[in-house]
Every structure is written in structure tokens, then in C-alpha cells.
Structures
1.
Amino acid sequence: MELLKERILKDGIVIMPDVLRVDSFLNHQIDCTLYRQIAKEFKERYKDTKINKILTIEASGIGIALATAFELDDVPVVFAKKGTAKTTSTHLYTAKVHSFTKGIDYDAIVSKKYLSEDDNILIIDDFLANGQAVLGLIDIINQAKANVAGVGIVIEKGFQNGRKLIEEKGYRVESLAIVDDFKDGKVILR
């Protein structure tokens, strides 16, 4: 997606050897025009796939998921909350997730009343690095006996193993921009 790639090259900031800051347009301040184009691109890439729900994880995935839902005829959006499941609950789906960026573990939590075995769910997230957030969402969908229709990622770190882990489990991944490397503080896109 050329508009996204241009924006990453123009405004993305490499802040550590493997961390890209895109908060000026993607996940702190939101460029609504860019979000609209991202959503249209996900709709195009999944046009032949039955989708009746979107699942994401708080917080940065919510805006992208919502924009995509509008393009997909207003399908519902469910977002996993990050926290700690204090007890085993019969009304919650939970999955352990490790955050690459923050270096912490947390529980991704979704109420059972929002997912059903009839759902064909598109997972949407802003970044794919080591794949742990997406794998946690896949686990939750599997607990609900629902179907993973696919995974939509805005920016993938192609030099990390997230895509490989997800595809090895048989799931389709569509990334709108893939970072191959960070070299001398610059972003190298595929």
C-alpha cells in the first residue's frame, strides 16, 4: 500500500534497533484519511472471504478495526482487553500474550458473550513482530470454536518471526507494509 509506505518513510522514527515509532499518524495521533485507505485495502484483500466480525486487541488496533468494520458493511468489532485474569472465569476467554514492545506478559480477555461458533472473524492489528498478540487472539477464537477468516496487519516487521508462526498454523496473513530492516536509523521496506 503505497500511501502507507510513503508515510512510514516520511514520518516513521526508528527509536531502538528494532522499534518503529509511528505515533504521529497510526497509533497515538490518527490520520483519518490514511485509516480510511487502510480499511479499503483490507476490504479489497479479503473481498472473497466471509467475515461477520472483527477481533483486535486494545488499544492501537481498535481504530483500525473500526475503520475496517465500516468498509465491511458495519460488522461488529470486538477488542480483547489487556489485564490479568484474577480468577478462572466461566464467562471469559483468556490467552497469555507477551508484548514485544513493552517486554511484559499479560492476559488478553474477551467476554464469551461476544464470540460464537458461527463467527468468521478477521483479526486486525497495527503491528506484527513476534506474533504473540495475534496468536493469543487466534487462541481465543479457537476457544470459542469460531473460524479465523484471516489476519490483517498494518505494519509487519518482516525480519521477525511472527508471520512464520501464524502461517505455520495455517492462517492467512495480509500485511499492508513490511519492514525488512532498520539500517542506520532508516526504515527499509519490502
2.
Amino acid sequence: MLLGVVLLALLVTAGVNNMWRFQPWADGETHGRWTALYNGYGRTVGTDQQVVLEPKAATSADVTHGSLVHTSETYQDADFQITVKTEEQVREGSPNVWEVGWVLWNFRDNDHFYAVALKPNGWEISKQDPKYPGSQRFLATGDDMTFPIGEEYRVEVKQDWPQMTVSVNGHVLAKVVDRERPYRGGSIGLYTEDARVRFMDLSVAAAPGD
């Protein structure tokens, strides 16, 4: 009898996990550790340890579709790692190099966060800041490392406030300090525009924020 109950519980758990993995997340929904902000008219699916973002494919140069989820918890000075794999750029025609997976941190809202983007021709670390044209300020960029589509990259962010260190596969991209209206604390976000991206195995070494 006990064995039957255990097996039934395992089957129910497996069914819920599979439904969670393949049932698209609607905008505003929370699923485990993740909250789906928007899906770019496409599809967001996942589990606690794996999220796939695939916004609708853009069909013209003046159209962009983005997708974003963030952790339902906030963190203060989080050190974290996550694996990013841009599986395919879905824009019809010629994709832009920044249409890849982005990792966000100290995320407050759609206009306030830090980000790293791993591009086929290099990388960029930026701050989403409405005070700047286009609401974006570049903190560091480089082409010493390139990131071809279809490969996995382990991104690590360490915060020894006010310094933030961003590494990929154990190689430091940059150490940056933001002295203009810095954002300290917030959630961790996953973002893409016009690409299908798989994010895996988020590991956070920080206590939840207030």
C-alpha cells in the first residue's frame, strides 16, 4: 500500500513537472523561482533550473520582439552563475549581433538593471538607464572573446560592492564600477530579443533581499 502511494506521488510530480516544462507561461505569471514579465508574442517555457525564451520572429528591420523573465526573489549583492545557450536567431533576414541571450542582475523593472550580452562578434556589459539616449549606457565592451550561436557559456557575476565582476567560462570579461545612480540589489533576469535562448542551472550565492 505504501509503495503504491509513493509511486502515485512520483507520477503526479512527474506530470506536473512535464506540464510546467511544456505549458507556455503567460505574461505576469510566476512559476517556481521565475516570474514571466513578457514573452514577445512568442513562447516561454521552463522549470526552476531551465528556461527557454522564444519571442515571435521579427519579419522586418524596424520590428523587434523581446522576452524577459526574472527571479521572483530579490537579492542584495548577489554572486551567481548561469549557463546561456543562444540556440537560434529567429529574425527573418539578417539578424543583429545583439539578438542573443542576455543575463540581467540588480533588476528593478524594465528600465533599471545591469546586463551582459554575449554576441557572435564580442560582448557588452551595460546599464539600462532612462537618463541616457535609448535608455542604455555601456559600462564595458570587447571583442577579445566571441560567442558563436549554438554553444553553451557559463556566465558568472560577482558583486563586491561597488565593483561588479563579469566572467564567462572562468575568463574575466571586465570589472566595472557604476558611479552614476547605481542600482544595488534586485532580481536576476533572463532576456532575449529575436532569438531562441536556453538558460540553465542558475546558482545564487546570496541571501534573498529585503
3.
Amino acid sequence: MRRRLGRAGVTFRALNHRNFALFFAGQGLSLCGTWMQSLAQSWLVYRLTGSPFLLGLVGFVGQAPVLAFGLFGGLLADRWPRRQLLVTTQTLSLLQAALLAGLTLSGRITVGWILALAALLGTINALDMPVRQSLVADLVPRSDLPSAIGLNSSVFNVARILGPSLAGVIVAFAGEGLCFLINAVSFLVVIACLLAIRITPTPRTAHESPASLLAEGLRYAWQTPHVRALLTLIAVLSLTAMPYAVLLPVYAGEILKTGPGGLGALMAATGVGALVGALQIARRGSIRGLGTVIAKAAALFGLSLLALAASTAFWLALLAIIAVGYGMVTSMAGTNTLLQSLVPDSLRGRVMSLYTIVFFGLAPFGSLLAGTVASHIGTPLTIALGGIIAIISAGFFWRALPGIRRHVRETGLLPPEEFAAH
């Protein structure tokens, strides 16, 4: 019993730090609003047009800016105070949601406006996400980073379950505009929490040109074994394995013979597995052995996709997709934790911008690839192919671990007790 209580204390100990507790509270509310807006926007596009192509186009223009501008977000995070930058991006997000709400509630909304505002939000997010990722490491000591990143991922996945559920009810009874308005108001809480955070400013060098700073970040990521291996693993998973999600509607309808309710249950089950995986990372007392955990989680992700592809019974698919969510988020949150722990603060923003690019920026292209492949070989085989590639990628990462440990040990990035099982 004491051991369990001790583990619980480790899981939530990042909340003992006032700055992180404020950040966590603001994120929890705002992410619910973000997921509400996401569902309401998709439904609005479908209601106005009935076009699957336009649904996909709105999703694409909302994600593509991450690939185009993500590196600049990392550069900003390394050159200017991160808290102030985040206040700016959150204010811009508030204005975007408020404009979307105003146009919708007044009946003036068009698909053109939705596309333009989706592109605007995508550009804001491209700058926001590297700053947000980097700021977490400023709020807690390094020993509590696993807890902070795991809790951050947990609140994201809880919001992924609650936000769409609330949005479905609100859209049915009051329309999409109210969801957008609620999201806009939620940003006020985030901004208030960010303004209440107190961080000692870290001196940052800004003498070099932006081009040389970007080149420095890219060179560091490529020449540093652990960074290169982690980013490569996430890039492959983002392109080939994670796009299973865009095929779920087809899989639910054509293979499982279920409707929207069944699809919702599959998405909720993914969120449950993801939440368990995030808490698994949060309860770690250090990053010892985390490289091994990432490799095993990526392999489990792939094996679970194979099980999902082979499932024709709904209850089997539910079990498989819980494991999919667990393996996916454990590998992603674990990678985030290792990068934040092993990268120097002066380069953290640029490295985390690369993480954002390979995680989020490649997603629309992975979705496009999955849709194209599925149209030729079918949904189950496409999901299975993604699983096979995930397993192979996990194997390559596993083989790279001894070299990564050796590099970490030789460069003195961690104290001896940390790198032993890293």
C-alpha cells in the first residue's frame, strides 16, 4: 500500500510546483475548448457542404503550417521569454475563436472563412507548440520532468474524451457557434494562469542571425545520436502508423458494421489507453530505462494495429484499440521526456520544434498516404502495414539504444546513476 501511495506521489509531484500547477490548470480547461472547437468546426463544414473533400481540406490547411513554420516557433522559444511568447499566441488563438464564433452566430460564416481561419490557427499553433513544449522544462526541475510531461499528456487525452462529448450535446441543442464562443472564453483562463506564473528570466544569446541559429539546431539534431534516433522513430510512426485514426470511420462502418455510436466508442477507447500510457510516464521517478520503454511501446503500438486490422468483432476491436492508444502515447510522451531531459536549454526550443514538425506537421501527409493506400488495398491491410512498419522501426530504435547510452555517458549529459539503465 505504501509503495502504491509513493507511486501516486511520484505521478503527481510536478503539481507541487506552483508554476506548473497554474500551467496545468489553464491547459486543462483550454484543451477541452480546443477539442470542442475541432468537432464543431468539422460538423459545420459537413453541414454547409456535405463534402468529404472539403472536410479533409480544412484539416490539411489547419495542420500544414506546422511543417512550414514550426522551426521558426522553436527559434522564437530559444531567443525570447517563453511565457510572454505563449501569452501572445494564446491571445491570437482567442481572437481567432472569437471571430469564428461571431461569424457563425451571425449567420455570415462560409467555407472560405473557415479555411482562412483554419490556416490562421494552424500558423499560430506552429509558433505556439514548440514554445509550449519548451516552457514545461522551465516550470519544474529536471527530476520532475517525467511527471510534468506525463501529466501534460494526460490532460490532453482527458480533454480529447470530454471536449467532443460536450461539443456533440452543445451542437445538437445550441449550434456550433456556442462551442467556438466557449473556446474563446477558455483562453482567458489560460492567459490569466500564464500571467500568474513567475519565472526567473534566463539569459538568451541573440547575436547570431536567425538563419545561423536554425542551421545550428538542425545540425545539432542530426549529429546527436539520441536526438536523431528519437526524431526518426516519431517521424516514421507519424507517417505510417498514426494515420490509422483517419481510417476508423471506414473500419467501423465496413468491417465492424457499426454506426456513429460505435465509432465514438472506438475513439473513447483510444483515449482510455492513451490516458493510461501518459500516466505511466508521469509515475516514473527518473528517465532511467525510458529508452527501453519507448522501444517496447512502439512495438506494442505496431502489434496492436495488427490485432485491430484482424478484428471483425466489435469487442475485440475495442480491446485492440485500447492497446493502440497506450502504445502510441507511451512512445510519444516518453520521447518528449527524453528530449526535454537531454537537450541543452539553449537548443530546447529548436529541437522541440523539430519534434512538433515530425509529430504534427507530418500528420496530414500521413493521412493522405493512408487514404491513398487504403483505396487500393483496403482499410485492414493499410492498418496492418502501418503496424508492421511500427514494429520494424521499434527494432531499429532498440538496436540503436546501446550507442545512445554510450553517447550520453561519454558526453556527461546525465549523472552516472541516471544513464545506467537509460
